[in-house]
Design a protein that fits this description.
Number of helices: 13
Helix content: 25-40%
CATH architecture of the domain at 184-406: Roll
CATH topology of the domain at 184-406: Dipeptide-binding Protein, domain 3
Shape: globular
Structural class: alpha+beta
Order of helices and strands: EEHHEEHEEEHEHEHHEHEHEHEHHHEEE
Radius of gyration: 24 Å
Number of strands: 16
Length: 444
């Protein structure tokens, strides 16, 4: 998947729409071999796809697969997907849905050779269809905490730490360590339960979005590693309309909107009551996610400046997930995928209740109509027009309090030359090479 939301050829080297968009013909790449030596053919791909479609979790995460009525091979290297209706999200969903292979083997550059107390052991797959990896062996070692990981990295006991928090980027970067940051199509947001009385009002939701200084949040909490988020559409998507003015930081405007909605500061407050505020609500936060907790505290402070009291309920992750699924919350702080495709926001905010991940209960008839148009259209001009209109609808009736698109950072010893891609360096690890200008120094 490209950063702009377009599907890229991988195991399927090309695809074409037929019969007015009701059939997708995929051409399987020749010469692809599974780690067990099996060749990838259209028959193997059809069997794997059928099994993936049958899984309920996939039908919720990728609603376009519910449009598929049949999957059948056509010769050795072509696969035909017949559809009940045009399904424009399908190529993108297939790229996310399928790790082709149903025998616990894959087609990637490294193959699993063992698991033990030291970690997961992989070795390069010499028959990888894009070329033989330079790295011969990878060991993925678990770590109890980040401090242990950093210590191992600085001592040369490991070559990479996969997730460096924003506040640690400058601390860990030095002459021996390179830190590679990249934008993720995930955003931090406070999702509202649209069935809860305060959040039924689009005016209230607009007011809360206007109350947040996103630049300050990114500077104070994310140490500059993020971009302001004002809606669910990935701003790097090829159809995104950058001319539309997003939410601005307008605390006075937020107060005016809240008062217009009937939320005024009380004249008197008894000592036993909550702090004086025009609006009180509780936000669920998962325990032991320190970054989310710090984001929540910054949002709490900024909302209090406009007379809104957001209290937290910290829950174990299992209880947190259950409460969301059952709708037992007023608001919830989440780190949620919203790209790079339009299919991602569709499952949360634009799908009908019978499908998708409708946990937050957001309903807007025009948003559903536009998402449905995007789901069924392959005309680029029509898609650009619909995305622009959808952005305006979601600004007027925001489904959540959008905060920031986040970044992730990988720390890698400079003994390796990392292939540049502009994205996650893990995806190019098979192209990494040894850096002959540096000598590996290991202290064990």
């Amino acid at each position: 998947m490209s950063v702009d939301g377009r599907a890229l050829p991988r195991l399927a080297e090309s695809w074409v729409w037929e019969t007015g968009g009701r059939r997708l013909r995929l051409r399987i790449r020749a010469g692809v071999t599974f780690h067990d030596g099996t060749q990838l053919t259209s028959t193997v791909a059809a069997e794997a796809l059928k099994r993936a479609i049958e899984r309920p979790v996939n039908r919720a995460l990728y609603p376009s697969v519910t449009d598929i009525t049949s999957v059948r091979p056509d010769g050795d290297l072509q696969l035909l997907l017949d559809l009940s209706r045009p399904s424009a999200f399908l190529p993108e969903d297939l790229s996310l849905l399928l790790s082709i292979g149903s025998r616990n083997v894959g087609t990637g550059p490294f193959r699993l050779v063992g698991r033990d107390s030291d970690g997961v052991h992989l070795e390069r797959f010499d028959r990888y269809y894009l070329g033989v990896p330079e790295i011969e062996r990878i060991v993925i070692r678990p770590s109890d905490n980040l401090r242990t990981s950093w210590t191992r990295l600085l001592r040369g006991e490991v070559d990479m730490v996969t997730d460096v928090p924003p506040e640690a980027v400058e601390f860990i970067r030095n002459d021996d360590i390179q830190v590679i940051s990249f934008a993720r199509s995930y955003q931090f947001l406070v999702a509202f339960n649209s069935a809860a009385p305060p959040f039924k009002s689009a005016v209230v939701r607009r007011a809360l979005n206007a109350a947040i200084n996103r630049d300050a949040l990114i500077a104070n909490v994310l140490q500059g590693h993020g971009e302001p988020a004002t809606g669910p559409i990935w701003p790097k998507h090829w159809a995104y309309d950058g001319s539309i003015q997003p939410f601005g930081f307008d605390p006075r405007g937020a107060v005016s909107l809240l008062e217009a909605a009937g939320f005024r500061l009380p004249a008197q407050v008894r000592a036993s009551e909550l702090p004086p505020a025009r609006l009180h609500f509780t936000c669920l936060v998962p325990a032991d996610f320190s970054l989310l907790e710090r984001i929540g505290l910054e949002v709490q402070k900024q909302l209090y400046d406009v007379g809104v009291d957001m209290q937290f309920q910290v829950l174990a992750p299992e209880e947190y997930d259950l409460r969301i699924r059952e709708g037992r919350f007023e608001a919830v702080l989440v780190d949620i995928t919203s790209g790079p495709t339009l299919a991602r926001p569709h499952v949360f905010w634009g799908s009908p209740r019978r499908e998708g991940l409708h946990a937050f209960g957001y309903e807007n008839a025009e948003a559903v109509r536009l998402f449905d148009l995007l789901r069924t259209s392959t005309n680029e001009a029509a898609i650009r027009s619909a995305v622009s209109r959808l952005q305006r609808v979601l600004l007027e009736d925001p489904p959540a309090l959008f905060l920031a698109w986040n970044q992730r950072a990988r720390a890698v010893r400079r003994n390796f030359r990392v292939a540049e891609s502009g994205g996650d360096p893990l995806f190019t690890i098979w192209q990494w090479t040894e850096n002959p200008d540096r000598q590996a120094v290991l202290t064990r």
